[in-house]
């Protein structure tokens, strides 16, 4: 194997990484790679051969106890040569955390097992076309009109980890929209939508009940009439069929949610769309 030079990502690497990802069935947010390169470069590594970026991996540290891995990819023509293994081991050596999570393409689950990851459930990607005509919902409002701490507190309730920096940046991406539902003065649902490589991507989507999630998602889809959208739903959410039938969703693919140190304890009953397969 040729010597792999590993370094932290730079903004000039973004287009190359996007090129590799766009050949896969990931369909990330259109600005996701730039977002993570710009705001979370500390554990975002690329590997070079002869000054060409041939692989990458990212870890987002959510405090000292949990980090999430994404953008783990190698140039298609150079796979099976150990570059992914090398950069993956470099990341694991440098990231200091009690538990690592990832959403793995199913055919790569066994490879992640070798790094100490165990499969806990699948996140299923669905797609559909947003309705042509808006369907306003009562008690659902723009995230621009709410106190930021209330957003953070509700995200923590649903994600189980405090991540104010990430959410602040995530909800202010170009072209994104966010809504929340309120009941008795308290948030009972929240969602964000952003442009994807193809169509739009939903995430996160939370709700105290599936009806709350439906109302929030309906308002998000009002922003993109007659456009395709994608959402990744934990298959273990017992109300998943309510969302599927209401929006006429079609299955696209699946990702395996994996952890190195046990299940993180997400309240799956409240999670109707994960934030992103890159960030958890």
Entry keywords:
8 helices; 26% helix; globular; single chain; alpha+beta; 280 residues
Overall description:
The chain has 280 residues and is an alpha+beta fold. It has eight helices and 13 strands. Strands 1, 2, 3, 4, 5, 6, 7, 8, 9, 10, 11, 12 and 13 form a 13-stranded mixed sheet that branches. Strand 9 and strand 10 form a beta hairpin. The longest helix has 12 residues. It is globular, with a radius of gyration of 18 Å. The relative contact order is 0.18. The model has no long low-confidence stretch (mean pLDDT 94).
Q: Would you list the SSEs in sequence order as H and E?
A: EHHEEEHEHEEHHEEEHEHEE
Tell how many strands the DSSP assignment holds.
13
* Largest sheet composition: 13 strands, mixed
Residue stretches low in confidence (pLDDT < 50, at least 5 long) are none
Strand content: 25-35%
Rounded radius of gyration (Å): 18 Å
Shape from CA axes? globular
* Strand-pairing-aware structural class: alpha+beta
Mean pLDDT: 94
Distance between the termini: 32 Å
**Helical coverage, percent range:** 25-40%
- Oligomer designation: single chain
What is the helix tally?
8
């Amino acid at each position: 194997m040729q010597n792999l030079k590993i370094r932290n990502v730079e903004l000039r690497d973004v287009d190359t990484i996007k090129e590799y990802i766009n050949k896969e069935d990931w369909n990330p947010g259109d600005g996701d790679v730039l977002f993570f390169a710009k705001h979370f470069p500390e554990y975002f590594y690329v590997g070079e051969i002869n000054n060409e970026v041939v692989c990458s991996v990212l870890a987002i540290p959510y405090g000292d106890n949990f980090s999430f891995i994404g953008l783990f990819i190698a140039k298609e023509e150079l796979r099976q040569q150990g570059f992914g293994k090398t950069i993956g081991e470099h990341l694991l050596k440098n990231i200091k955390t009690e538990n690592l999570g990832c959403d793995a393409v199913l055919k790569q689950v066994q490879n992640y097992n070798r790094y100490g990851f165990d499969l806990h459930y699948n996140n299923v990607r669905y797609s559909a076309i947003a309705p042509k005509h808006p369907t306003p919902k009562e008690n659902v409002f723009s995230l621009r009109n709410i106190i930021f701490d209330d957003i953070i507190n509700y995200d923590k309730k649903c994600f189980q980890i405090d991540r104010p920096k990430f959410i602040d940046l995530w909800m202010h991406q170009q072209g994104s929209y966010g809504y929340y539902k309120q009941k008795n003065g308290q948030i009972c649902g929240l969602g964000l939508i952003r442009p994807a490589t193809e169509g739009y991507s939903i995430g996160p989507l939370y709700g105290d009940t599936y009806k709350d999630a439906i109302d929030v998602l309906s308002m998000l889809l009002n922003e993109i009439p007659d456009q395709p959208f994608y959402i990744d739903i934990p298959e273990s959410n017992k109300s998943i069929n309510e969302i599927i039938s209401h929006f006429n969703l079609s299955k696209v693919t699946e990702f395996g949610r994996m952890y190195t140190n046990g299940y993180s304890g997400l309240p799956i009953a409240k999670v109707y769309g994960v934030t992103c397969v890159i960030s958890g």
